[in-house]
Amino acid sequence: MVTEHQRIKDEHVQLREAVAHLRDTLPPQTSGPIVAWYGSLDTELAEFIEMVERHFALEEEGGYMRELRDEYPRLGHRIDELAAEHASIREALSGCRKEAREGVGATELVEHLHRGLDLLAKHESAETELFQDAMQSDIGAAD
Ligand SMILES: [Fe+2]
Ligand SMILES: [Fe+2]
């Protein structure tokens, strides 16, 4: 669990950097359609979604979800919520990619992208909090 936990924490750092990078590539919301940007966005988004998918798979299959649920049944409800959020984040991000391909207006697309990235950032923070709570209860139990 400790090794997996560290790996997930490392990935969270990488993911935060990738989110910041992606946000930096988004044009200001006032700009109109930018053809070149749509082209590069598709590649950027594809890579980003792949990274998120790998991270989610690690958490769902080998990572923290099952282990934490077994070790700390009282956290089960929060783990269920986090697992459900994976589905909404997947949907939000792939929806943005679809919109980019369909040529949705830049203002709307940028807004949806920020919303998707916000969802992801919030989710990752909630996970960090969950890990901290689990560790706190270990410390509490050792007292
Ligand atoms: Fe997650
Ligand atoms: Fe995560």
Question: What attributes does this structure have?
Answer:
binds fe (ii) ion; mainly alpha; single chain; 0% strand; 143 residues; elongated
SSE topology:
Layout: H1 2-25, H2 35-62, H3 64-71, H4 76-102, H5 106-142
The structure holds fe (ii) ion (2 copies).
Summarize the structure.
The protein has 143 residues and is an all-alpha fold. The protein is built from 5 helices and no strands. The model has no long low-confidence stretch (mean pLDDT 87).
Distance between the termini: 21 Å
Contiguous runs where pLDDT drops below 50 for at least 5 residues = none
List cofactors, ions and other ligands: fe (ii) ion
Number of strands: 0
> Main sheet, how many strands, which sense, barrel?
none
Count of helical regions: 5
Percentage beta strand: under 5%
Helix/sheet category? mainly alpha
Binned, the helix content reads: over 70%
Number of domains: 1
The sequence of SSEs as H and E is HHHHH
Mean pLDDT: 87
Spatial extent as radius of gyration = 17 Å
